[in-house]
Design goal:
Bound molecules: nicotinamide-adenine-dinucleotide
CATH class of the domain at 4-181 and 217-242: Alpha Beta
Largest sheet: 7 strands, parallel
Strand order of the largest sheet: 3-2-1-4-5-6-10
Distance between the termini: 42 Å
Number of helices: 11
Structural class: alpha/beta
CATH topology of the domain at 4-181 and 217-242: Rossmann fold
CATH superfamily of the domain at 4-181 and 217-242: NAD(P)-binding Rossmann-like Domain
Shape: globular
Number of strands: 12
Length: 334
């Protein structure tokens, strides 16, 4: 059914996990990976699939309308991962977040409309629902959008644009809103790889505030399986929450990673909280579980152990990234 699928941001953490899993599985589908290779994009993430005949990489920007015109000629579905994705960077400077996450999505929607693309899947985040208190119920797809950072506001804007193209032009759009991902190939500016990196370098591990903020963690391989289900069977105009059934406080995560690396909890250093730091995210994902038969398979304790092992064994993947980035903001922690 899907002959040519455009993957945007396929050299990033989640897009590359999708490609590594599904390029070999869907041999009759051509996967075109359009990626700008920003600091977060890395061709090494797709090394394993580059020899497949049904895979092609295009270096480019989702806002490059001329390029999109050429690429879109035969595209029948789009899975849109490309984004600026790090909250701390959006607090420092949100320009690129607005340009990529809002204007970029708009360029893709326009070209999809012009070419009657059969399915447009936009990969969004639970952060668009804003912060929950300890006692709030998990967010459902019908909850109000209350983003509180420039990152989540740009993603919420992107979601609304996508939904408007469904309502106004009848485009088959689906939106996914997933919780915090972890796993291999995550750029070392997000919590779990930062913890691992610091511990392996014998540095203190920085934790924002009192470390009690709660995130629901999902292994990236479970996330991409949910996206596959939506790509194959998702209904037009639907939003699907995706959770990991593993809510944890940041402090618990730090303690677990220290334990796995046989280091003392005394290495935790509490640092000044992030401005506007959301307290808790958790999604109610009954819809995807009931309607599409998906559920996360990877147990958190096993997943985190495997992830720590991967970072130990693949230091030649992440160490050069630190050198390239030098002292740039995103690597301070974070
Ligand atoms: N990481 C998470 O925990 C998480 C959770 C929920 C949702 N999401 C969403 O999933 C998507 C993927 O996240 P990720 O963690 O893989 O991000 P990432 O930062 O690892 O990767 C983003 C990719 O997009 C590419 N890109 C950026 N701007 C581009 C542009 N203008 N044109 C083309 N390519 C561009 C980058 O080069 C990179 O390869 C994002 O939309 C993010 O908002 C992430």
């Amino acid at each position: 059914m899907h002959k040519n699928v455009l993957i945007t941001g396929g050299c990033g953490f989640i897009g590359s996990a999708f490609l590594r899993k599904f390029v070999p599985k869907y041999k009759n589908t051509n996967f075109i990976n359009l990626d700008l290779l920003t600091y977060a994009g890395n061709k090494k993430n797709v090394e394993k699939i580059k020899k497949f005949n049904n895979y092609r990489f295009i270096h480019g920007d989702i806002r490059d309308k001329k390029k999109l015109k050429k690429i879109f000629k035969n595209i029948d579905s789009v899975i849109h991962f490309a984004a600026e994705s790090h909250v701390d960077r959006s607090i420092d400077n949100s320009d690129e977040f607005i340009k990529t996450n809002i204007l970029g999505t708009h360029c893709l929607l326009e070209e999809s409309k012009r070419n009657n693309v059969a399915k447009f899947i936009a990969i969004s985040t639970d952060e668009v629902y804003g912060s929950l208190s300890e006692s709030d119920k998990a967010s459902t797809e019908n909850d109000k959008l209350q983003p509180r950072s420039p990152y989540s506001a740009s993603k919420a804007s992107s979601d609304l644009l996508c939904l408007s193209y469904h309502e106004t032009f009848g485009m088959h759009v689906c939106i996914t809103r997933c919780s915090n991902n972890y796993g291999p190939y995550q750029y070392p500016e997000k919590l779990i790889p930062v913890l691992i990196k610091k511990i392996l370098n014998n540095e203190k591990v920085p934790i924002y505030g009192d470390g009690k903020n709660i995130r629901d963690w999902i292994h990236v391989d479970d996330h991409v399986e949910a996206i596959e289900k939506i790509w194959q069977n998702g209904s037009a105009g639907e939003i699907y929450n995706i959770g990991g059934d593993s809510p944890k406080r940041n402090l618990e995560i730090a303690k677990k990673v220290l334990y796995l690396l046989e280091k003392d909890e005394k290495n935790i250093q509490f640092v000044k909280d992030r401005p506007g730091h959301d307290w808790r995210y958790e999604v109610n994902d009954k819809k995807i579980k009931t309607n599409l038969g998906w559920k996360p398979k990877i147990d958190f304790l096993q997943g985190i152990e495997d992830t720590v092992k991967w970072y130990i064994e693949n230091q030649d993947w992440w160490k050069p990234l630190l050198k390239e980035a030098g002292g740039r903001r995103g690597l301070k922690n974070e």
